């Protein structure tokens, strides 16, 4: 036996060759089928019913809006000729005294007759808070006279015959000069103004308030001017004047 501790060259190391390991390939799992392919016929039917229900709801809403707009259009067509026809039938002046002493004043007493016709065949009119007064060149020369509330049926005519009074109403100096010129000519233009509110009634429906403004021009003839104060009133004037009527929606 060879002595391992014997001096001499070392033996060559042994060489081993290890073959490479072969790892077996793992097969990939199959992809899941598409969701659409997995939907049953029951799910498809449920989706169709939801779509049909939404379409029905949209159709009902559209029909409701169309009917509402149609009703509004019909009401607008019915109420389009809303203005009644006013006529100043008569103006009787009993007192028209001008005082030229400082301050200048005017005393007036007169009676007027105003008629209103409802020209609509299916709409009634409520007149409320009516008052009437006289003006001269935009200055009020009589106190307002309150008229009773009135309901006017289809094609009906309403008539009011109020008295208008103005006791020593102050008149501006510039306005007094114009009044004296008119009196020298022998006629004075007064404006009879009627203000108030109206409502329309169609069946059981009653509208909101509308402001009513009526302006009736009235030419009053006189005999002559008395420098000592006072005016001789001429013949009573009886006439018919068709007047313009103003209407606007009230905020009340």
UniProtKB/TrEMBL annotation:
Residue stretches spanning the membrane? 56-79
| Any single GO BP term | defense response to other organism
Location relative to the cell: Membrane
Question: Keyword Lipid biosynthesis, does the record have it?
Answer: no
The leader peptide range reads none
Its domain of life? Eukaryota
The keyword Calcium is assigned to this record? no
Query: GO CC annotation: what is one?
Result: plasma membrane
| Keywords annotated in UniProt | Membrane, Transmembrane, Transmembrane helix
Q: What is the designated name of this protein?
A: Late embryogenesis abundant protein LEA-2 subgroup domain-containing protein
Q: Please name the source species.
A: Quercus lobata (Valley oak)
